[in-house]
Write a structure and sequence with these properties.
Helix content: 25-40%
Distance between the termini: 17 Å
Oligomer: single chain
Order of helices and strands: EHEHEHEEEHEHEHEHEHEH
CATH topology: TIM Barrel
CATH class: Alpha Beta
Radius of gyration: 17 Å
């Protein structure tokens, strides 16, 4: 199936409080344009990481009341939360997919800590819920960590290896690095692309041409804070079609991710 899943990461830098109704409306509009997955962090009303599911629940239920879209919960993000607090989204009944970081990296002036015991614990939780594993890969070593955990049967072989480039102090978003990462992922695995802090779609176009299964866009990753989620999804959907690829519907995306339809 030569189709691409468009994933939306809609929450960028927050100034003031989150406008839940506006955010929900944007996600709904993006779904109607072609997005079949939405990546959401558990945050408070000011966009800060929290273990309180209230805002997350309001957003998710507001979206699903109107449109069907795959909800991906995040177990990541720089914060002082512990492993259990970072994974509260996995208990939400509408979550169907989960991000899972494959290791620790420097990020800006901080360290993005993902210890192996925590990774294994999160992996078991994701497996118990039968969610789609969305593996976040920030460097080459994480590819081999993912393969190790697949061999240990802690992670499903249907997991998506999401290449994450452009984060501060991590791998740069260049064509050379992207090619190295793609060529290092075993051919039997499927992969996606997250270009953080992007200002144009050139590297995203490269990922599409190289065979990405998932392309993520949204205000979480876009450098231009004036761009709306709707503009970004519209652009990537048109780009995918102009490159003679097809957009996966929500039902097709669930099949591709091994989820129940």
């Amino acid at each position: 199936m030569d189709k691409i899943i468009v994933s939306l990461a809609p929450i960028g830098n927050i100034k003031g409080e989150i406008d839940i109704n506006r955010l929900v409306d944007e996600v709904i509009a993006c779904k109607r344009l072609g997005a079949s997955m939405v990546h959401l962090h558990v945050v408070d009303r000011f966009g800060k990481p929290t273990s309180n599911l209230e805002i997350f629940d309001n957003i998710v239920r507001g979206i699903r009341k109107v449109e069907d879209i795959i909800i991906e919960g995040s177990t990541g993000g720089l914060s002082d939360l512990d492993a259990k607090e970072r994974s509260v989204c996995l208990s939400h009944p509408l979550v169907e997919a989960s991000s899972l970081n494959m290791g620790s990296v420097n990020m800006g002036d901080d360290v993005y800590i993902n210890k192996m015991p925590d990774i294994r614990w999160w992996a078991e939780l994701i497996g118990k819920r039968k969610l789609s594993y969305q593996l976040e890969i920030f460097d080459l070593s994480m590819i081999y960590t993912a393969e190790k955990l697949i061999r240990e049967e802690l992670i499903s072989e249907s997991a998506i290896f999401n290449i994450c480039l452009g984060f501060d102090s991590v791998l740069p978003a260049t064509q050379e690095v992207l090619l190295t990462m793609v060529n290092s992922i075993p051919k039997k695995r499927r992969w996606g692309f997250i270009h953080h802090n992007f200002s144009d779609f050139r590297l995203i176009a490269t990922a599409i041409s190289l065979g990405a299964t998932i392309i993520r866009v949204g205000r979480e990753d876009c450098k231009d804070t004036k761009k709306s989620n709707i503009e970004l999804v519209d652009k990537v959907v048109r780009l995918i079609r102009e490159m003679d690829k097809e957009i996966a519907t929500v039902e097709e995306a669930r099949l591709m991710l091994g989820l129940e339809v």
